[in-house]
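Support reply, case 0932

Customer input (verbatim):
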Amino acid sequence: MRIYDCSSMRKIKEQEEKWPNDEIRVECAIDPVTPTPVLRELARERGGPHWVRIKGGVASNPSTPPDLVLKLANDEHKFVRELAIGENLSTRKLTCMAGDPEDSVRRAARWELKKRKRQT
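Our regenerated output:
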C-alpha cells in the first residue's frame, strides 16, 4: 500500500509540510509508478541529509528512463553509480564502469556483465 502521492512535485511538497523529512522523496524515488518528470526532478536533488538516497532510488527505479539512468551512472557518488547498474544501462557503459575507481561499482558492473553473458 502506497502512503504518499508521488504524481507531481507539487503533491510531494504539499505532503512534506505534514511530514517534514526527505523520506517522502525517497519513497517516491523508488516507486515504479512515479511519473518520469518527477523522477527527473528528484534526480536533480542536492543537499540535505538524504540526497544520495533520493538519487540512488531514482537510479534503481525500473521505471527510470535509460537516458536518466546513464546520467546517474556518471554521478559523483559511488552509491548512486552502483545503483544505476541494471537492465536500463547499456553494455557499453557497463564495460566502462567495470573500470570504475570504486571497488563496489566495479564489482556490480562486472556482475551485471556476467549475468547478461549467461542470458545470451
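We compared this against your earlier run and they match. Two observations from our side: The chain has a mean pLDDT of 90. Residues 21 and 50 are 9 Å apart (CA to CA). Please reopen the case if you see a mismatch on your end.
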